[in-house]
């Protein structure tokens, strides 16, 4: 199998992009990544997106972006695995290069969410759940996470305020990220006073609806473009039941744990080797569950890691180093690529005020649905 390298990266600011279409956002990120790589047009194009059909009335994103960017007469495909669509597209490109089918590929993750009314976006997000067993009964995506959080609090004795430090840490890191949606700090007081959305999840527990696009150029050989080299040394995808009611574990992410263990085994590494973890903090409960699933603490101890400051930039395992989903924003189909772009910046030593100390290995984990589709990657600085 060929070794695979990250040759170029690009990202647009996460915001409400009223002046740009989905196609334009994705194109901007793609051009940035290609310019960063400096190798011209890659062999193929992969696009990760969740809700273009419902929110933007646009299918065939692979072909659309190939046309927009000038990828004429080259393979292009769009991939959807809910909120893990970006990382799933990255994994498909990675496997194609590792197998020798391709020498290079451009991967774009893009989502345009703010053009649609809020109730339509809520309904679109609910398609990541089981329609017959959950969505048809009025369970929204935030409602599903609220059920997870309520059960977790009951099982382990945590109070709602104990989750505040996940959001506080994310906002503190986003202050130094010019591409983040929210670049201001929050306090424990503002967390507690935040409006309730779906008890026990309040506004400060949740990531914002956003527009954004990020892109990566992958190659089968290192590119001499003036940047420190970064390679992909592990890639794992796992699934769990789509509905919560069929899960064997009601306070854990089994697929995330299996995916992380598989990635560690591929890389020959352990959790303590990781210099940072870009986790999927769409809700603060997912932050806690992700730390546990990835092996950084025992079940039920996720909130304690945040309370003890072990997730800060200069601490035991830096997470959400550029703001995470909570403060950078969560344009769902793009999120997995944002995570990988940010991890690449860290391993290149280009994260500025948010630079971690141990920039050798980076773990990213992108979650689709309420834990039903997990994609985990480990990157290495060359």
Describe, in short, the structure shown.
This protein is of the alpha/beta class.
Outline the fold blueprint.
Elements: E1 4-11, H1 22-37, E2 45-48, H2 52-55, H3 61-69, E3 76-79, H4 85-98, E4 104-112, H5 118-125, H6 141-156, H7 164-174, H8 188-193, E5 196-198, E6 201-202, E7 211-219, E8 230-239, H9 254-267, E9 276-278, H10 284-293, H11 302-307, H12 324-328, H13 335-348, E10 361-368, E11 373-381
Parallel strand pairs: 2-3, 2-4, 9-10
Antiparallel strand pairs: 1-7, 1-8, 4-7, 5-6, 8-11, 10-11
Helix pairs in contact: 1-3, 4-13
List descriptors:
about 35% helix; Peroxisomal Thiolase, Chain A, domain 1; 11 strands; globular; alpha/beta; nine-stranded mixed sheet
Question: What does this entry look like structurally?
Answer:
The chain has 382 residues and is α/β, with parallel strands linked by helices. It folds into two domains: 4-118 and 211-219, Peroxisomal Thiolase, Chain A, domain 1 (3-Layer(aba) Sandwich), CATH 3.40.47.10; 128-207 and 233-381, Peroxisomal Thiolase, Chain A, domain 1 (3-Layer(aba) Sandwich), CATH 3.40.47.10. Helix content is 35%, strand content 18%. The chain contains 13 helices and eleven strands. The strands form two sheets. The protein has a nine-stranded mixed sheet with strand order 3-2-4-7-1-8-11-10-9, with helices on both faces. Strands 5-6 form a two-stranded antiparallel sheet. A hairpin with a 2-residue loop joins strand 5 and strand 6. The longest helix has 16 residues, at 22-37. The protein starts with a strand and ends with a strand.
């Amino acid at each position: 199998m060929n070794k695979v390298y990250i040759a170029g990266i690009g990202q647009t600011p996460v915001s409400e992009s009223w002046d740009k279409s989905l196609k334009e956002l994705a194109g901007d990120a793609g051009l940035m990544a290609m310019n960063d790589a400096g190798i011209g047009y890659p062999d193929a194009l992969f696009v990760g997106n969740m809700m273009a059909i419902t929110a933007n009335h646009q299918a065939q994103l692979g072909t659309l972006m190939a046309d927009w960017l000038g990828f004429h007469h080259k393979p292009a495909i769009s991939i959807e695995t809910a909120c893990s669509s970006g990382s799933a597209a990255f994994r498909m490109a990675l496997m194609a290069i590792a197998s020798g089918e391709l020498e290079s590929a451009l991967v774009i993750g893009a989502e345009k969410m703010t053009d649609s009314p809020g109730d339509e976006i809520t309904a679109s997000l609910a398609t990541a759940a089981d329609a017959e067993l959950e969505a048809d009964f009025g369970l929204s995506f935030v409602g599903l996470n609220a059920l997870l959080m309520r059960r977790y609090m009951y099982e382990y004795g945590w109070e709602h305020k104990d989750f505040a430090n996940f959001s506080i840490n994310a906002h503190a890191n986003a202050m130094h990220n010019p591409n983040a949606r929210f670049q201001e700090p929050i306090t424990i007081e503002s967390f507690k006073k935040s409006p309730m959305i779906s008890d026990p999840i309040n506004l400060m527990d949740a990531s914002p609806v956003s527009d954004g696009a990020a892109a990566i150029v992958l190659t089968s050989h290192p590119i001499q473009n003036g940047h420190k080299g970064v390679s992909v040394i592990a890639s794992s995808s796992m699934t769990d039941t789509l509905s919560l009611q069929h899960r064997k574990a009601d306070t854990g992410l089994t697929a995330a744990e299996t995916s992380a263990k598989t990635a560690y085994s591929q890389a020959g590494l352990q959790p303590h080797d990781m210099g940072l973890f870009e986790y999927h903090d769409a809700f603060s409960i997912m932050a806690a569950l992700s730390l546990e699933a990835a092996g950084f603490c025992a079940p039920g101890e996720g909130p304690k890691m945040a309370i003890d400051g072990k997730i800060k930039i200069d601490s035991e395992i830096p997470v959400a180093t550029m703001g995470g989903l909570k403060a950078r924003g969560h344009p769902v189909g793009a999120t997995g690529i944002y995570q990988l772009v940010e991890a690449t910046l860290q391993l290149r030593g280009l994260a500025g005020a948010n630079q971690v100390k141990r920039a050798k290995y980076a773990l990213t984990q992108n979650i689709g649905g309420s834990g039903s589709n997990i994609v985990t990657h480990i990157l290495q600085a060359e």
